[in-house]
Amino acid sequence: MNDEKKILSVRDLEVVYTSGKKVVQAVNKVSFDMNKGETLALVGETGAGKTTIAKSILGILPNPPAKLIGGEIWLEGEELISMPDAKKLKIKGEKIAMIFQDPMTALNPLMTVGDQITEGLLLHNDYTKEEAIEKAEEMLELVGIPKARYVEYPFEFSGGMKQRVVIAMALACNPILLLADEPTTALDVTIQAQVLDLIKTLRVKHNTSMILITHDLGVVAETSDNVAVVYAGKIIEYATKKDLFLSPSHPYTIGLFNSLPSMTQGQKRLNPIIGSPPDPTCLPMGCSFAPRCPFVTEECSKEEIPFAEIAEGHFCRCCNLKQEEKTCH
Amino acid sequence: MGRYILKRLLWMMVIVFGTALVIFTILYFTPGDPAVVIAGGNAKAEDVANLRHLLGLDKSYFGQLREFMYNTFIKFDLGTSWVYDKPVLHELVIRLPRTLIIGLSAMALNLTLGLLMGIFAATHEGKWYDSLTMGIAMIFISCPDFWVALIMILLFSSQLGWLPSYGIGGPQYYIMPIICSALGGIAVNARQTRASILGVFREDYITTARAKGQKEGRVIYGHMLPNALMPIITSIGNGFARVVAGSAVIESVFSIPGVGLYLLTAINSRDYPVVRACVLFFAVFTALSMLLVDLVYAFVDPRIKAQYSNARRRMK
């Protein structure tokens, strides 16, 4: 891989949550790379560890209960985890920015939306107060909010409008990496499309890379270049969007696609993946999907399954790909 | 906003009127004859009867009530003390500053210390100094102020001779009363602050502020504290109301001629005009502090402000 183009590289990231004596293994040795301008989608069920991965990159894990116990995160040749806090403050918000899941709660209810955008601008630029306000007004206009509303408070905005403010806030300092944590989950479908378009337009301008966290395969198809499927804190499949949609390989990914209702066949019931994700306080040996997998063999629970390249740029963490193909296709 | 304040002031008049009615009635039906108490145990029956007539105590309930209400709300005359024969209003004006000095300084003290202790404890949640701070607050809450006052008098006046134990005079006379009245408030404010800061600690907008790269100090004082302030303001408001209404205990321990002691003495000597005037004054003061609290709410929280103002105006 060309290192010039590589902007983010995550190696063996491990995060646990502790509550009392219980230890929740939220992220287990996750590794991936990203190129400049690329969009990587992290797909998976609720609780799979997607948001935790994003928060680890930005360094805003709530500690306690979360604890980063291992791994490296390289951003443009700098290692973030071992970086002193003071230096890291410069990176947060300036180089990496995050769009949060729930616009209803992501804004401080007692501050005007304008001031909340200005706050970040003043932290990372040598603007005077007036310049920052002007820039913030510009950002508001850019996301389609009249700048006269600078002085209004979050409670005076609708959900979609609030999400626009959150986006304006995240993109105000032209970050090189944008972490979008289910940016459209809390919004209704018509607004979803608008917000996704908005993010897309603003990103293209500055060639911003993005990690998009979602469980909506439609959103993935719309926006991303590469997809990583996360299950129980591990990446179990990684491929380009095209490869993943055309030939999903891991039984879990296949299950995900099967569970989508078909538009053409007169389907009466959905096809869910039977069972529920494993208890993250005691993950099973070997493949954590094994208890729910229709293709399970004895081999699955013996040892850690390697992340094997099954086609060029297509990785999958499954030891039974051969058998599976026989029964599946 | 103006309309809201006006409405509240009108309501306050109703409250004060009701308080006057209730306190008059309670005193009227209190067993025992003020004339007997004031005239003294050895007074002749004739003198007592004269005194009863002089004080208007021989009139019917409604006759006395009418006179009291007329004097208080139409003539704005709070009456004259039966025991000392001095105008009550005059006496209140002289005594009020002493009560306010103690009460307000105690409040300033318990606000600063309480908030700082609360913030300190909340930001170090679960560590040993959190437990230590809250332990100290627990001790403060558990010790009654009159007991602390007595212990302090024993230590600093009797044993060490540093501070005068009673009366008023220079600033040194106020030190112990202020500290004693502040202790309980410090504890309440510290615990309240800690609880409400922990309440907003995990809010999403705090994460947002951190994600911007904001320094931890600014996150606490700029984002957490304003949002945590609401319950704290309520507890401050209660404290403010207690500045006057709760002054009786400390003033009687330290023999400070303030409003609280005035009321206490008046109750013991059946000096009804003084009791009624003091209670009315407390009612007005409490109602005003509650109004102040609500206005501070509106000042801190734009959502509440929006509820108050009928016509929305955009300021810029």
Automatic annotation (TrEMBL), chain A:
Membrane-spanning segments: none
Pfam families on file: ABC_tran, oligo_HPY
Membrane topology reported for the UniProt record: Peripheral membrane protein
Membrane as UniProt keyword: yes
Gene3D superfamilies, sorted: P-loop containing nucleotide triphosphate hydrolases (3.40.50.300)
Subcellular location: Cell membrane
Family statement drawn from the similarity comment of this UniProt entry: Belongs to the ABC transporter superfamily.
Record protein name field: Peptide/nickel transport system ATP-binding protein
Automatic annotation (TrEMBL), chain B:
Keywords of this entry: Cell membrane, Membrane, Transmembrane, Transmembrane helix, Transport
Chief location category: membrane
Membrane topology: Multi-pass membrane protein
PROSITE patterns, alphabetized: ABC_TM1
One GO CC term on file: plasma membrane
Family: Belongs to the binding-protein-dependent transport system permease family.
The protein, known as: Peptide/nickel transport system permease protein
Species of provenance: Kineothrix alysoides
Taxonomic lineage of the native organism: Bacteria, Bacillati, Bacillota, Clostridia, Lachnospirales
